[in-house]
# Entry
Amino acid sequence: MRISFCCSDTKPQPWVDGLKAAFPDADVTLWAAGAAPADYAVVWAPPQQFFDEQKQLKGIFNIGAGVDALMKLRLPAGVPVVRLDDAGMSAQMAEYVCHAVIRHFRELDAYEADMAGGKWSYRKPRLRTDFPIGVMGLGVLGERVSRALAQFDFPVNGWSRSAKTIEGVRCYSGDAGGQGFQDFLAASRILVCLLPLTPDTMGIMNLDTLSRLQPGGYVINVARGSHLVDGDLITLIDNGHLAGATLDVFRTEPLPSDHPFWKHPRITITPHTSARTLREESIAQIAGKIRSLAGGAPISTLAGVVDPKKGY
Ligand code: NDP
Ligand code: OXD
# Structure
């Protein structure tokens, strides 16, 4: 068996070594132009040339949960694309989002500023019933995040394309043009984005949708930068409809040094780190799936297979 690793922005050698350890009898290599045809590809944002050359692939494994970068490429027809299915990301995402929500709800930034200024003062406790949270996307990550938030007794709403039932979460469904989405927005004050980036979800957080959040709204984007219209967010924060935002993902990464998000007093930013790919867990998951496929298991038995029509 031949496995080719091709990744645009990760140190490749530990991945190649990890895959070699999982498949001691296979030929595992770091892809270079002109490389011999591989059976399986393990990739993150590879160049188009990779797929133009690799004509014998039986499976493409993405070392992230989001496949938007892959979906922009011409992929070989009929070859399954498999994304990471959690692999340690949902716990990280739950930590990050709960932290951002609680930091905002408990006004911890204001307390920190007071204490830094030598000021010992109290703020009136806020009611969590006044801070309903809406989670867009109730997949592997969104469901875990919604359940974690519900554990803190926040009212939690969730929205997904297909209908769901999640204990402690009021679930809305349908597409972005439907009544379910409008009702979900109107019922939410804090908005968390955990959607995949597809043509349907690009720019979904914009002047119209964010204006529909309850006054004093707050935005947490941990999915992809292109879900958000940056200027619309700033307009709504500056005019007082939104209280602020925590953003982990950006249209251009790294965030350009002159982007207004860097210095906006009500926007907290982190460098796309809310849920990191954990190498060992990911290799174990991918290796298990390659073994299943190589052993003749039907692709429908694998978790995380991307539906090319949906784009996620
Ligand atoms: P899943 O595919 O498991 O879940 C996606 C969810 O979004 C599903 O509930 C799906 O609905 C819903 N959805 C998709 N399109 C629409 C639509 N048009 N309208 C309404 N709902 C929609 O993905 P994951 O939970 O694993 O990951 C989500 C995203 O998080 C990734 O695509 C990636 O972009 C991002 N991510 C960010 C990371 C970071 O560090 N910042 C790390 C990892 C992931 P349905 O269930 O009905 O199909
Ligand atoms: C992912 C990511 O999609 O890291 O896994 O953003």
